Amino acid sequence: MKIEIREVTKKYEEKKAIDGIKMVIPEGSFTVILGPSGSGKTTLLRIIAGLLYPTSGKVFFGQNDMTDLPANKRNIAMVFQKYTLFPHMTVEENIRFPLESIKEGKLFKSRTYTDEEISKKIEEILKLLHLEEHRNKYPSQLSGGEQQRVAIGREIIREPVIFLFDEPLSNIDARLRYEMRTWIRRLHKLLKKTTVYVTHDQSEAMALGNLIALLNEGKIEQFGTPDDLYYNPINKFTAQFIGNYPMNFIPFKFKDGDLYYNNEEKIEVPKNILDIISTRKVTKGDIGFRAEYIREYDPKKPVDKEMILIDCKIEDTEKVLDQHIITLKHLNHQLFFVTKTKKEFKKKEALSIVIHSDHIYVFDNRGKRIQI
Ligand code: ADP
Ligand code: MG
Question: Are the beta carbons of 361 and 288 closer than 8 angstroms?
Fold first, then answer.
C-alpha cells in the first residue's frame, strides 16, 4: 500500500513537532525515517499509524483518505522496542491471539478465517520465523530474539498492509541487533509489504532502507536512496548526518576570482570548482570532503590539477587493527582522515593530504549544496 503524507503539521502548543511534511512512501518500499532525537520521527510515525491526529494535513493509504480513521481501523502492524507477550500463553497461543480479537470485533478485519485457514497460517508463521520447535513454550523460556520474533509473528497473522517500526532495536545488545536486522529484512523481502522504520542510527538506516527520509526539526532535509544521501547530499545537514564519519568542511571566501581560507591563505582548487563558485556568485561557503576519500600526499608524485592539496599537522591518532582514524589540523580547522595502512602516524608530525575533485562538495553559506 502506498502512503501519502500531504502537508502534515503537528503542533504541541506553539511548537511544531512536524512542520508541513509532504512525502510519498512507495508501495512495497522499506522506507526509513531517520533523524536526531526530537526531530519528530515518532510523531510522524504515530500520525501514519492513526495514534495521533495531525494539526493540519492529510494521510492517504493508496487512494483512501485515512486521516479520520483510528489506528485499529487502519490494518497496520506496529513493532516497538517494548513488546508485551502474554506470559501465560504459549508461543502458538500468543501468535493466534490477534485473530481472537478480530473475532470479537476489536481489531480491523480484512476478512474472516476458517479454523483450517487459521491453523495453516500459524504453521506458516512458525516456519517463517523459525519458531516451530518453540511452539509450546512460554515466553519466559525463550531468548530475547525469539521473544521479539513471536511479537513480530503476532503482527503478521492479521495480514496487515503496512508495517511500522519505532526504534525496535535500540538498547539491545549488538549481537541480537544484527540478528533482528536480518529477520526484519528477510520479512520484508518475503511479505513485500510497505514498511516504515524509525531510527536515529544512520548505519541502521543505510543497512535496512531502500529509501531514507532524513528529518530535522520536523522537516525533511532529504528523501532518497542510501546512495543518494551518501554520495549526493543536498545540504550540509545530510552530509554531516550520513556516513560513518561526518563530512569534513573547510569554510572559504571567494574574492577577485580566487578562493581563500578564512581570508588568509589562497586555496588552489581544480578549475571546474572555481568556475562553478564564480558563475553561481558564491562569496562564502564551505568545501566538503569525506574522511574516506582523503589520500596521503606522495611528494614523489606531482600534484594532479584535479586535486586539492592541504598541508596539515597530526593532532591525534586512533588505530583499530590496520585502520587509522587521524585527527588533522589545518589553520584552525579540524579534519578527519581515515586510512588503512600498516604505516604508523605520530602526533604533531606534518602530514599533507590530497582530495580529488570528484570527491569534493561545495556548499553555499546557507549550507545548500552547489552541484558541480
Ligand atoms: P523523535 O521521535 O524524533 O525523538 P518526537 O516525535 O518524539 O521526536 O518529538 C518531536 C518533538 O515534539 C520534540 O521536541 C518533543 O519534545 C515534542 N513532543 C513530542 N510529544 C509531545 C507531547 N505529547 N507534548 C509536547 N511536546 C511533545
Ligand atoms: Mg522517537
Answer: yes
